[in-house]
Design brief:
Blueprint: H1 2-28, H2 32-60, E1 67-69, H3 71-88, E2 92-96, E3 104-106, H4 108-125, E4 131-139, E5 143-150, H5 157-160, H6 178-188, E6 192-197, E7 203-210
Parallel strand pairs: 2-4
Antiparallel strand pairs: 1-3, 4-5, 5-7, 6-7
Helix pairs in contact: 1-2, 3-4, 4-6
Length: 216
C-alpha cells in the first residue's frame, strides 16, 4: 500500500505539469507538425493518468468488508452504471437472474466494481448490435454461479494466460489492472473465476461465490 501511494503521488504531480504546459504551448503554436507532437504528448499524459487511476483503484480493492447482500441486486446496479456506454454502441445486455437467490456474504461496492470491469471488457469487445448475457444460478458444492457471455471477438490464446497479471493489456490503453482487480475481489469473497472462449468466438466468464451456511 505504501509503495502504491508513493508511486501514484510521484507520477501524478509531474504529469499535471507536463500536461498543463503542453496545452499552454499548443495554444501558441501554429506549425502543424509541432501541433501533432504536442497532441501526442497530451495523449500519452492522459494514458499515464489513467494508469495512476487504475493503481489507486487497485489499492482501494485490496480490502473487502463482507456483509449480507443480494447478488441479483448487485448485478442490476452494475448494469445501470454501464447502460449508457452499452446503448451508445447498441449493445443489448440481457439478464437471466434466478428467483429469490440465497443471501451471500459480499462487499457490495467491490463486487459491483468487479462486475463493471467485466462488462466494460465485453462492451469493448463486441461489435455494434452485439449481445451480453448475464445469468445467476445455483451451482454444485454450495455456490451461486454468475455467468457473463458475450458475442465479442474472444481472447487470443497468447493473451489468455496473462489476463490476470497486473499491468498486462493487449489494448495498450493504460494499466491492464481491470481483471487483476476482478481476480483479487473474487478471491476476497472466497470465490472462483474462470474465463474461456466460447465456440461462437465470444467470451464466457464464470464466477462462483459461496453460499453462506446458516447455523440450525
Amino acid at each position: 500500500g505504501q509503495l502504491v501511494d508513493g508511486v501514484a503521488h510521484e507520477i501524478r504531480n509531474p504529469l499535471m505539469t507536463i500536461g498543463g504546459l503542453a496545452r499552454r504551448i499548443k495554444e501558441k503554436v501554429t506549425d502543424e507538425q509541432l501541433q501533432g507532437h504536442i497532441n501526442l504528448i497530451t495523449h500519452e499524459v492522459e494514458r499515464l493518468e489513467k494508469m495512476v487511476e487504475r493503481i489507486d483503484e487497485y489499492k482501494k480493492a485490496q480490502v473487502s468488508i463482507l456483509k449480507h447482500g443480494d447478488i441479483n441486486e448487485v448485478v442490476r446496479e452494475s448494469v445501470k452504471e454501464i447502460k449508457n456506454v452499452a446503448e451508445a454502441k447498441a449493445v443489448d445486455i440481457k439478464l437471466s437472474l434466478m428467483q429469490e437467490p440465497p443471501v451471500l456474504l459480499i462487499d457490495k461496492d467491490n463486487l459491483k466494481k468487479a462486475i463493471f470491469h467485466i462488462l466494460q471488457n465485453s462492451v469493448d469487445a463486441v461489435n455494434k448490435g452485439g449481445v451480453i448475457e448475464i445469468t445467476t444460478m445455483p451451482s454444485e458444492g454450495g455456490y451461486i454461479e454468475l455467468v457473463f457471455s458475450d458475442t465479442g471477438c474472444g481472447i487470443k490464446a497468447e493473451d489468455m494466460k496473462n489476463i490476470f497479471n497486473p499491468f498486462y493489456t493487449s489494448k495498450m490503453t493504460g494499466a491492464g489492472l481491470g481483471l487483476t482487480i476482478v481476480y483479487k475481489i473474487i478471491q476476497d469473497h472466497k470465490g472462483d473465476i474462470a474465463i474461456e472462449n466460447t465456440a461462437d468466438k465470444g467470451v464466457r466468464v464464470s464466477i462462483k461465490l459461496p453460499v453462506e451456511l446458516k447455523e440450525e
